[in-house]
């Protein structure tokens, strides 16, 4: 019973949209026809009226000429009429402080211009006495339905602006989720337009709406991967684990997120390759988001030569610690370690572990370069040097090898 009620309400709403469209057309152009037709009748009563009274396909030539002239006149005046309507709307919008109404008016420009084309067609068919023709009525009502939903579609950029402003002001709504909502709204407008057109062409919309459940089940079984990607995109947006512009690594792909769509996530790698990853994989994989760490680690081992005395090593360690604690690019609230911790094959290793106060790669490299140069200065200042891989060979005893005797010939 509930489904039947919903279907009945849906059908009634679609009937109302179609009927309202027809009434709008009649109210907009009937006055034009009422003024033009008496002038045509006077033309028929004139001295040359018999020429204009001749019929083509049962319609007098005078009415054909008047219909064509009226149609092209409306097309010529369309830009002027559109500007007049938009100026009237803009005068109303100036009374408000928001820019949303200005955005809506800009988006309404094209559907309003298309509306005058519909009026031109209706005037044309009325003047050739075809306004009551079933196919003409079907054509006019169909294009008016398209224009009606085009007007609804024109409101979505304003809704998108509202969602964007809210996403910037609050963490509860991300820009990716805003884009997803707008796509759903636009898809809903298109679906409603198609259903309205189906009803206008006499297709049983009630049965069509009732069959959507069965069709949805069949599609879900046939396209389960697509459905998984769709739900994966919803999970990503609600979880807010990644955003456009962030540096991530997922499923072996590392790069910058360029778009999070309804089915896939698009990533631009650092080699400038364009990788498309299904959202179901992204949602079910471990995501390493480098952009959200805020800091970056510096971990290194510097090797000093074995002839460096212990006192010099202690001074080098202390100087490096002091340099890092006073460095403006180091995160001082994070772990900082500088210790002489190993005897390597060719060097005495000093372990350095700290974090920069930025995650920006270019700035990180700049800080690391400055630290490396300062470490080199410290090591040279205390008379030590950096070791490099080498081997020393000690020979305990040189074997006695008889020298060759000089022979005379």
Layout: helices, strands, pairs:
Elements: H1 2-44, H2 49-53, E1 55-56, E2 59-60, H3 61-93, H4 100-107, H5 109-127, H6 134-153, H7 156-169, H8 175-200, H9 205-222, H10 224-239, E3 247-250, E4 253-260, E5 264-269, E6 274-278, H11 279-283, E7 287-289, E8 296-304, H12 310-326, E9 337-343, E10 348-356, H13 361-381
Antiparallel strand pairs: 1-2, 3-4, 3-7, 4-5, 5-6, 8-10, 9-10
Describe this structure in words.
60% of the residues lie in helices and 13% in strands. With 409 residues, it is an alpha+beta fold. The chain has a five-stranded antiparallel β-sheet. Helix 1 packs across helix 5, helix 1 (2-44) crosses helix 8 (175-200) and helix 7 (156-169) runs antiparallel to helix 8. The longest helix is centred in the first third of the chain and has 43 residues, at 2-44. The radius of gyration is 40 Å and the shape is rod-shaped.
The helix/strand order is: HHEEHHHHHHHHEEEEHEEHEEH
Query: What structural class do you assign from the helix and strand content?
Result: alpha+beta
Helix percentage range: 55-70%
User: How many beta strands in the DSSP annotation?
Assistant: 10
Note poorly predicted spans. Answer: none
Shape: rod-shaped
Strand content: 5-15%
Number of helices: 13
Biggest sheet overview: 5 strands, antiparallel
């Amino acid at each position: 019973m509930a489904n039947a009620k919903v279907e009945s309400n849906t059908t009634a709403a679609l009937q109302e949209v179609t009927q309202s469209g027809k009434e709008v057309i009649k109210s907009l152009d009937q006055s034009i026809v009422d003024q033009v037709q008496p002038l045509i009748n006077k033309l028929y009563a004139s001295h040359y009226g018999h020429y204009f009274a001749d019929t083509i396909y049962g319609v007098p030539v005078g009415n054909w000429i008047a219909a064509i002239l009226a149609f092209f006149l409306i097309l010529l005046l369309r830009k002027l009429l559109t500007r007049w309507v938009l100026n009237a709307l803009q005068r109303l919008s100036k009374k408000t402080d928001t820019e949303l109404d200005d955005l809506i008016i800009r988006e309404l420009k094209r559907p309003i211009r298309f509306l005058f084309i519909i009026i031109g067609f209706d005037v044309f068919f009325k003047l050739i006495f075809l306004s009551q023709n079933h196919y003409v009525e079907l054509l006019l009502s169909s294009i008016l339905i398209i224009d009606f939903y085009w007007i609804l579609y024109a409101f979505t950029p304003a809704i998108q602006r509202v969602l964007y402003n809210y996403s910037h002001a609050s963490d509860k709504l991300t820009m990716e989720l805003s884009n997803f909502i707008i796509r759903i709204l636009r898809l809903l407008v298109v679906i409603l337009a198609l259903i309205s057109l189906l009803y206008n062409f006499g297709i049983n919309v009630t049965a069509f709406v009732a069959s959507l459940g069965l069709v949805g089940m069949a599609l879900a079984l046939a396209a389960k991967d697509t459905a998984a990607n769709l739900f994966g995109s919803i999970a990503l947006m609600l979880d807010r684990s990644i955003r456009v512009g962030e540096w991530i690594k997922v499923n072996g792909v590392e790069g910058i997120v360029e778009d999070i769509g309804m089915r896939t996530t698009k990533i631009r790698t650092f080699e400038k390759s364009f990788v498309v990853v299904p959202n179901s994989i992204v949602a079910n994989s471990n995501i390493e988001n480098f952009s959200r760490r805020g800091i970056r680690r510096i971990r290194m081992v510097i090797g000093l030569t074995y002839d460096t005395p212990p006192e010099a090593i202690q001074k080098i360690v202390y100087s490096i610690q002091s340099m890092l604690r006073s460095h403006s690019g180091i995160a001082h609230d994070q772990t900082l370690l500088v210790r002489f911790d190993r005897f390597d094959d060719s060097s005495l290793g000093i372990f350095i572990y700290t974090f920069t106060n930025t995650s920006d790669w270019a700035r990180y490299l700049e800080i690391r370069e400055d630290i490396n140069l300062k470490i080199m200065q410290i090591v040279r200042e205390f008379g030590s040097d950096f070791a490099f891989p080498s081997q020393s060979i000690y020979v305990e005893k040189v074997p006695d090898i008889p020298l060759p005797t000089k022979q005379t010939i």
